[in-house]
Write a structure and sequence with these properties.
Blueprint lengths: L18 H6 L10 E8 L5 E3 L7 E4 L3 H10 L4 E7 L18 H12 L4 E6 L21 H18 L3 E4 L6 H11 L6 E8 L6 H6 L3 H4 L15 H13 L3 E5 L5 H11 L3 E5 L1 H12 L6 H13 L3 E4 L2 H8 L1
Parallel strand pairs: 1-3, 1-4, 1-10, 4-5, 5-6, 6-7, 7-8, 8-9, 9-10
Antiparallel strand pairs: 2-3
Helix pairs in contact: 3-4, 4-5, 8-9, 9-11
């Protein structure tokens, strides 16, 4: 029986007929160059140590670090972000280990860079891995983070990281004025090619929980918050103000953190400033998706779908604990 056709000339389903067409006409693509793998490096650890709240992610000892980094490089990933887990007895109120030349993370960076000189290494500038109170800066008499007192420490931390071979220093502390003081220090010390990747819109989010376990800071931080220096979750215009200030002070790349709950912020930043914009799919996002996949509640395809959503929103690169897993699929 012949079907009577009475339909407009445009049928969008024509363009979805098969996988080849859908691939050819995809408006957004995801490649290995879009992925940055964060890794946790633990002092005095031999081998690997699983992170219970982040299934499939481990802390790495310095003895296997280059082998693990080599596996990442072999997958075609171009960049890693390194996070230190230092011995508890080295933490103090001033976070003094952060500014010591050849500290643990600087030695790790130098070791990696020697074997993999083309790999882009990103390292955070913030004091929270080094303080015994778990905050990103130095505290005043009332127990709040003192913005201006913290800035010189961040300046020195950025310099020791640059000297170790870090390609991108990434201020994640959210202190006002830290980009300018770091940029000036880098220029004055001839690190003119060191990139500043600023955590410009870093929200005071509850999605960071597993990360605190990963760097073993949860026991120090307790039930405190970072509400006085990280951004309120309700605000987007404030994020644009933060980004504008950081660009003016010398940031080369800006970042929005967390990721999926803040896709609107990513899009707003990219539309407004047209600057390289990164997103961080944080530990809580990772653990939710990974657990759902492991439990059979969701298909593993949701991982790639989540990363494409970042690209669609305007992110140029994504820090994600799924980087190696997705790189294998992209191969």
């Amino acid at each position: 029986m012949k079907i009577e056709r009475n339909f407009p000339d445009t049928r969008l389903r024509r363009l979805r007929k098969n996988a080849g067409l859908r691939s050819m006409l995809a408006e957004t693509s995801l490649s290995k160059a879009d992925l940055i793998q964060p890794i946790f490096i633990k002092e005095d650890l031999s081998g690997k140590e699983p992170i219970n709240t982040m299934p499939g992610i481990n802390r790495l000892g310095i003895d296997i670090l280059n082998k693990e980094v080599g596996n990442i490089v072999d997958l075609g990933i171009k960049a890693i972000a390194v996070f230190p887990v230092i011995n508890e007895d080295k933490k103090d109120p001033m976070g003094s280990q952060a500014t010591i030349k050849d500290n643990f993370i600087c030695k790790a960076i130098t070791q990696i860079k020697k074997e993999y000189p083309e790999l882009i290494i990103i390292a955070d500038v913030a004091l929270d891995p080094y303080t015994d109170h778990g905050h990103d800066g130095l505290l005043d008499d009332k127990g709040d983070v003192d913005n201006d007192l913290t800035l010189p420490a961040l300046r020195e931390q950025a310099l020791v990281l640059a000297k170790a071979g870090t390609d991108m220093v990434a201020p994640s502390d959210m202190m006002d004025g830290r980009i300018k003081i770091i940029r000036d220090a880098l220029e004055q010390n001839d690190f003119i090619d060191t990139v500043i990747l600023s955590y410009s819109a870093k929200y005071s989010s509850k999605f960071y929980g597993p990360f605190k376990d990963a760097v073993e800071s949860a026991k120090f931080f307790g039930n405190k918050t970072k509400d006085t220096y990280q951004m309120p979750v309700q605000n987007i215009n404030e994020a644009l103000h933060e980004v504008a200030m950081d660009i003016q002070e010398g940031a080369d790349i800006v970042m929005v953190k967390p990721g999926m709950p803040y896709l609107d912020v990513i899009k707003a930043v990219k539309d407004e400033f047209k600057i390289p914009t990164f997103a961080y799919q944080v530990s809580g996002e990772y653990s939710m998706l990974k657990t759902a996949v492991n439990e059979g509640l969701l298909s593993k395809d949701v991982i790639k779908e989540s990363l494409i959503s970042f690209k669609r929103a305007g992110a140029d690169c994504i820090l994600t604990y799924f980087a190696t897993e997705i790189a294998k699929d992209l191969s």
